[in-house]
């Protein structure tokens, strides 16, 4: 059956697919593959940088950069390859592991430690971090910029309608008159407060990670 809004499983990829298009880069299955690959690669980089793990020697700067490029250049064709492997393994995270092992084959340093991809990890170790990154980056790159645009539009309306009288209500009953601009300004205040709280929580999290000397997600 050809793909169209009429046979979509959700209004998000049917009726509203144009409006939600920016989210595909973060919430599609191909995006999930990319985030899983990022977790697996950065875990391997962390293992290689740990002196106590003698079996994995530190990578050269060239190999470090090459591994990072795998994440940065992950394409739809790459995602199709992962999906083809998954059809054989019948396991989504194992397909990621096998795909990475194939990619490492062309790099002597990577090929030498390819068997350590996914070392000491469960699928949930990879998935919960991948899903967390998906939500975080969609928030930072799509949701918050849109929220800022909404706030700016409401500010403009609040100024424009500052003298537009309206009847206020309390418990469903008429109350003291107000203006539409004032009520919109109240909404702006609440949105800005929530926006500042989000920024504050992220700053506090970054400080805690720094104190604990833990690597922050990119």
Q: What can you tell me about this protein's structure?
A:
By secondary structure, the protein is mostly helical. The protein has 2 domains: 117 residues, Orthogonal Bundle (Fumarase C, Chain B, domain 1); 75 residues. The radius of gyration is 24 Å and the shape is elongated. The C terminus is likely disordered.
Search tags:
218 residues, mainly alpha, Fumarase C, Chain B, domain 1, 2 domains, two-stranded antiparallel ribbon, two-stranded antiparallel sheet, 8 helices, elongated, disordered C terminus
Task: Determine the number of helices (DSSP H or I, runs of at least 4 residues).
Answer: 8
Q: H/E series, N to C?
A: HHHHHHHEEEEH
* CATH homologous superfamily heading of the largest domain: Fumarase/aspartase (N-terminal domain)
The CATH architecture of the largest domain can be given as Orthogonal Bundle
CATH topology title of the largest domain: Fumarase C, Chain B, domain 1
Mean pLDDT across residues: 91
Instruction: Compute the separation of the termini in Å.
Output: 39 Å
**How many discrete domains?**
2
Structural class of the helices, strands and pairings? mainly alpha
> Regions with pLDDT < 50 over 5+ consecutive residues?
214-218
Number of strands: 4
Largest sheet: 2 strands, antiparallel
Rounded radius of gyration (Å): 24 Å
Shape: elongated
CATH first level of the largest domain: which class?
Mainly Alpha
Q: Tell me what portion of residues adopts beta-strand conformation.
A: under 5%
Order of strands, main sheet, comes to 1-4
Question: What is the share of helical residues?
Answer: 55-70%
